[in-house]
Amino acid sequence: MVHIPTRGTLPARVGPQIQNMPTYGPSKMSRQPYTDPVQYELEREHVLAKHWILGGHASTVKNPGDWMTFEGHGETVVITRQPDGSLAAFQNVCQHRGPAFVSEMTGCKARRFTCPYHGWVYDTTGKLVGVPEREDFAEEHLRDVRAPKVAVGEWGGWVWINLAGDDAVPLEEGLGADIMADLGAYKMEDMILHDVVEWDVPVS
């Protein structure tokens, strides 16, 4: 039996091709593209580091001060809802010695994040705002220090992130009209996240 798509622009774009596709029965696929570490590193460098990817459901960061962390592709990103309703995102890496300074998956009412190692403090945009024993550091070394920015956007009920930061293309351009039409047909912005299930599987 052949599944015929019914949502978004899929029927017009691929429906006829699927309907005319012969049924071959069971087939085998190589697992190499999904498990090869060399392939994964190429994807990380050339695809995942430059394109928009899902960071989480927008309902998780509904109110100002809400935050969540995204972990994947060798990166950890903190996503926060700002007082003006906008989103900010930054890499979860303390600029002092490099550890993650946000350890929980989600939270609320955040105003600052403090690194547990040496107490460096960051605001909810990732900017460094507090350093213990600041007099031990040259002021020019602390000026404008922040956790690396991550581009962030919101569309279709989801938060999207792009590790390219300021070099990222606009979200709508990155997704493209066809994908936005297909996903938009599901009205996921009207949904609420009910549960989170994590799987640790060695595949890309």
Structure in words:
The chain has 204 residues and is α+β, with helices and mostly antiparallel strands. The protein has a domain at 54-190: Rieske Iron-sulfur Protein, CATH 2.102.10. The chain contains 6 helices and 10 strands. It has helices at residues 10-19, 32-35, 37-48, 139-142, 171-175, 177-184, and strands at 53-57, 67-72, 75-81, 87-91, 106-107, 112-114, 121-123, 128-130, 151-155, 158-162. Strand 2 and strand 3 (75-81) form a beta hairpin.
Report Rg.
Answer: 21 Å
Widest beta sheet: strand line-up: 4-3-2-5
Structural class of the helices, strands and pairings?
Answer: alpha+beta
Q: Helical element count? A: 6
Q: How confident overall, as mean pLDDT?
A: 88
Secondary-structure element sequence?
Answer: HHHEEEEEEEEHEEHH
Oligomer: single chain
> What percentage of residues falls in helices of 4 or more residues?
10-25%
Any idea of the CATH topology of the domain at 54-190? Answer: Rieske Iron-sulfur Protein
How would the global form be characterised? globular
Which regions have little confidence, pLDDT < 50, spanning 5+ residues?
Answer: none
Strand tally is 10
CATH superfamily of the domain at 54-190: Rieske [2Fe-2S] iron-sulphur domain
Q: Please report the first level of CATH classification, the CATH class of the domain at 54-190.
A: Mainly Beta
Summarize this structure as a short list of keywords or feature phrases:
Rieske Iron-sulfur Protein; four-stranded antiparallel β-sheet; 6 helices; 10 strands; 22% strand
